Amino acid sequence: MATPADLPPLPSNPDENAGPHILGATLSTTCLAFVTVLARFYVRGFVVKNMGFDDYFMALAMSVSIATTTVIALSVKYGAGQHIGDVEPDIFIKGMKLNFISQPLLQAGVCIVKLSVGCALLRIATKKRWRFPIIGIMIFMVCYTIGTMTTLFTQCEQVAMQWDGSIPRKCWDQETLQGLAFTHAALNIATDFVFAVVIPVPILWGLQMNKRTKGAVMLMLSLGLFVCLAGILRIPTIENYGKTGDFLWDSRDLCIWFVAEFNTGIIAGSFPSLKPLFKTILDNTYFKGLTAKYGYGNNTGPTGSKHRSFSSKGFNNLRATERLDSHDQVDDSDGSLSQRGLVLENKPIALGVIQKNVTTTVTQTDVPITPKGARRHEWA
Q1: Distance between CA 345 and CA 348 in Å, rounded?
Q2: pLDDT average, residue stretch 362-371
Q3: CB-based contact 196:218 (threshold 8 Å)
Q4: What is the pTM of this model?
Q5: Angle (CA) 305 311 315, round 5°
Q6: Domains of the chain
């Protein structure tokens, strides 16, 4: 029987402490996701006034993200990111327990984000050939997440064995657990890619939108590829997790990339809903610069008062009554899309007001003249 002196020394290096890195990465991505979700609810609730299940699922995902961040912050307090030899045994047990609690939260959160994105895609996909795959993926992700969470709680004879080393460990072998972790990561990457590219791009490509709007919409949806990247970067961290028993140290990169994947999903899933806000901000900034370029101040020039009126109402126009752009009308005769249900709410905001005010701030020599002498807006 081996004595304590015969046992190998516990991994130790007091100079290595990844706790601050874990905390910094987690807090930064969570705060960014929180701000994005707040902006989403402002646009969808007060501007577009068209809330849906995708918004409610995203709010739930954000709540899970905040809870996960709280748990991870506490785990850092109790040794996460440090070597087992540098943490007191009772502190180590608390850190391991918190590490365990964060895992089902992350798994559930990633699934909820996908449900939100799926509901958003259902807003624009009215044809059965798109709706059935979307609904199928959503159902599969719910079932698979329930399965992975079940294995998380049943992989040991007693749940406490996963954080309390004083209890004789009777759990599944490490290879089985790693195989499940790899499978879960691969499925997340695959579904992220399907929801970011495979399904939305063909749907949007067939819509009768102007190229500028279509390109902007696809760019926003392609942000989902960053979620795929975070998932890919998480895979190498799974291979060596727990091989030496130094769980809190091994969890550092795994935790960072899992949280990054979760919060990036929230951000990417919310960005398309912010298009009306971005459009108003960019239009306001662009036209202010245009006026300054041609020498008109807010209170000078023949049209100074009109430009001043536009500047003061720039963001108020965000709440004004919206109308569809003539270039972005969608032919719904085939039932392929309901423009009112478009998750991106592709409606220029008070565009008529903006065009009218800009026309008065541009000199005649800088505006193309139509054969009838009317001015055209090349940027519209």
Answers
A1: 9
A2: 42
A3: no
A4: 0.74
A5: 145
A6: 18-281 (1.20.1070)
